[in-house]
Design goal:
extended, coiled coil, ion transport, 3-stranded antiparallel sheet, mainly alpha, 60% helix, two-stranded antiparallel sheet
């Protein structure tokens, strides 16, 4: 039935007709009745196509014969010689050009008429064989001009009759296709649903009595009551004599993962699922990604002018979501529409970070009061590079606008954004390690808490947590200490006196203690867990000489690093190598991941500098000319650069970098992502590909 419907759809498309999308008033038909109807329509169409093809072939042959007679007649009259009894017409001479006729799709073929003179039957036989080999058609042409004209009139009359017959056949065929097209969409949907139902029924098994079907499936716990009600309703509607038995059973395999989302949270869940679907009942990163993802994007994209542009685009998509949701969009627009709420939050956080950076298309504004700096005297009123002194409390919110254009603008902003990136990175990595603790506690794995969570949190914070503490203390005290020197010599010579780099009392002994803790944390992660697993395995199978029979056809899948299940195939070397790789990866990752968060600083700086270049070297430069045309050209170039470079390319760049920070730096601390999605049977998810 699917094949027949595809045949109808192709025929309607070739005929240039459109399938009706209007709801039909025809009552629902049973599948058996529909099958009979489709078979009748198919046979009727095949017969009409065959008849039309025969008529078209006859028409083409007569048309060729008519042209041969015309060409031969003109040749014989002009030459004044006697004509021979056979004339040949060559096919397949030039390449074909397709064109659409008003009646049907025809193939235009250019052909050449040629004449062959010969003497004797033997030569005639050879010529005919050559013509047949090359696919040429040959037609007899009488020598008498009167007979030629008579035959031409007969052929023309026959051609007129065939044209009328062909037109009538095409009209009849189009009428039949139009009657099919009215119901085609409904029939395709019905067949697709029935096919999906039968595909699902094929997964069920017969019970021992061969009288009923038994099926196993997954069901969310919250939907058990709904499922039972649906099964009872199905039993009642079908007048079944056998009731449906619903039984909860234990499964050997891991259940699928299902998170209830709405139109707001769905896009964030898809971002996480693109990395890997969560293992059953492990922590879902998308809960935190809803806030952290757009915020880290905004740290790199911070400009409240550009943020307002993104906000307007997001609001347009949200305002038209009911209309856009029913349309078939292109790949780019579909991506934008699906992430409209992600775009909304990214724009709001960009406005927030832009206010902190005090950048509106790279221009600072005195929004939250006056600057904390003023000129030392009247001679520097127009200069921002020298002579500024602090005369009042710091600027109320964000970066003081007086930093813009000053001699120390870049050193100040670089220091600010670099340290802020480290603080945000260490905070997010700590959150990832803390989530690994909740995972381990939920699954009852005390080994993971004692020998994975504890040493990891100690190692990370002994080094980079301490660095974050130094940054905060330096900000609060205004110290001139060199943090690079402090961190480097913490490893090279931890007992050396800090001198002017000392930020607080007791800093040197604290550094020694933290360094020792970091060194202890590495073997703490590496050695205890594999040996404890080996001891637990030995105690469990001590004195046992026979193997354990599997309890089901599929054995339980065992995690290499889990203390919950152990069988006789325990391989100590494999577990030890796995733990060693995990430990080395974390130690090296703690350094590389912290450095990776510096991309927040780098992209924020790049975005700010690009905005400044376009503003000063394009817009202000053009505005300096007293010429309307130059100003309009400069404004157009500035708008183009803002829209396509800053709002499109920079948005995509910041999005991808925020994506990497979440997938690699954040999620690798706790997220396994080796589960699989719960995909319930649903007619709404059926697509044309399943035909």
């Amino acid at each position: 039935m699917s094949r027949k419907l595809r045949f109808f759809k192709d025929q309607i498309s070739k005929a240039g007709l459109l399938s009706s999308v209007r709801p039909v008033t025809q009552p629902d038909v049973e599948l058996e009745e529909l099958e009979i109807q489709l078979a009748e329509h198919e046979n009727e169409l095949i017969e009409m196509n065959a008849n039309s093809e025969k008529l078209r072939q006859s028409y083409n042959e007569l048309l060729e014969f008519k042209i041969v007679l015309q060409k031969a007649g003109s040749f014989l009259v002009s030459s004044g010689t006697h004509a021979v009894s056979e004339r040949e017409l060559d096919e397949n001479v030039y390449s074909n050009d397709d064109y659409v006729d008003t009646a049907s799709l025809l193939e235009q073929v250019e052909k050449t008429v040629f004449v062959v003179f010969f003497s004797g039957e033997q030569a005639k036989s050879k010529i005919l064989k050559i013509c047949e080999a090359f696919g040429a058609s040959f037609y007899p042409v009488p020598e008498d001009i009167t007979k030629q004209r008579q035959i031409t009139r007969e052929v023309s009359s026959r051609l007129d009759e065939l044209e009328v017959t062909l037109d009538a056949g095409i009209r009849h065929r189009n009428k039949a296709l139009a009657s099919i097209g009215v119901h085609l969409v409904k029939w395709i949907s019905m067949v697709r649903r029935e096919k999906a139902v039968y595909d699902t029924l094929s997964m069920l098994n017969f019970d021992v009595t061969k009288k009923c079907l038994v099926g196993e499936g997954w069901c969310p716990i919250f939907a058990k009551a709904q499922l039972q009600a649906a099964l009872q309703r199905a039993t009642f509607d079908s007048n079944s004599q056998v009731g449906i038995i619903y039984h909860v059973m234990d499964a050997a395999e891991s259940p699928p993962t299902y998170f209830r989302t709405n139109k707001f949270t769905n896009a964030f869940q898809e971002i996480v699922d693109a990395y890997g679907v969560a293992r059953y009942q492990e922590s879902n990163p998308s809960v935190y990604t809803v806030i952290t993802f757009p915020f880290l994007f905004a740290v790199m994209f911070g400009d409240w002018g550009h943020g307002i542009c993104l906000l307007l685009g997001a609001l347009v998509l949200i305002a038209r979501e009911s209309k856009l949701g029913t349309q078939k969009l292109g790949s780019f627009m579909e991506m934008l529409y699906g992430g409209r709420y992600v775009l909304l939050l990214m724009s709001l956080f960009s406005i927030y970070c832009g206010l902190i950076y005090n950048e509106f298309f790279s221009v600072p504004y005195h929004i939250f009061g006056l600057s904390a700096y003023k000129c030392r005297d009247t001679t520097c009123s127009e200069a921002k590079t020298t002579g500024l002194v602090k005369y009042q409390d710091p600027y109320a919110f964000g970066v003081d606008p007086s930093w813009r254009g000053s001699r120390s603008e870049l050193p100040f902003l670089n220091s600010l954004k670099m340290k802020m990136s480290i603080l945000l990175g260490v905070a997010q990595m700590n959150m990832g390690i803390i989530l690994s603790y909740f995972n381990a506690r939920f699954f009852g794995s005390s080994l993971d808490i004692r020998y994975q969570f504890v040493p990891q949190i100690i190692f990370l914070n002994s080094l980079f947590g301490y660095l974050s503490l130094l940054i905060i203390i330096k900000w609060c005290t205004g110290s001139q200490a060199d943090l690079y020197h402090v961190m480097i010599y913490m490893f090279l010579s931890p007992t050396e006196d800090l001198g002017e780099n000392q930020l607080f009392w007791g800093q040197r002994p604290l550094q020694i203690i933290l360094l020792l803790l970091a060194m202890i944390a590495v073997p703490w992660m590496l050695f205890p867990k594999p040996f404890i697993l080996k001891r637990l395995h030995t105690e469990r199978f001590q004195g046992r000489t026979y193997g354990i029979l599997a309890t089901s056809e599929t054995d339980l899948e065992v995690e290499p690093d889990s203390a919950r299940h152990y069988d006789e195939d325990f391989n100590f070397s494999e577990v030890f190598v796995h733990q060693m790789i995990h430990s080395i990866e974390f130690v090296l990752g703690a350094v590389s991941n912290t450095a990776s968060y510096l991309r927040l600083w780098a992209l924020s700086l790049a975005h700010s500098e690009l905005s400044t270049v376009f503003y000063e070297k394009v817009l202000l430069l053009a505005w300096g000319y007293d010429n309307l045309v130059i100003r309009l050209v400069g404004l157009a170039m500035f708008a183009f650069a803002t829209a396509f470079i800053l709002l499109m390319m920079e948005t995509l760049s910041a999005f991808l970098h925020a994506l990497r920070l979440h997938w690699v730096e954040f999620q690798n601390k706790f997220y396994h992502g080796d589960g699989y999605k719960f995909r319930p049977f649903s007619f709404a998810t059926l697509t044309e590909d399943e035909d």
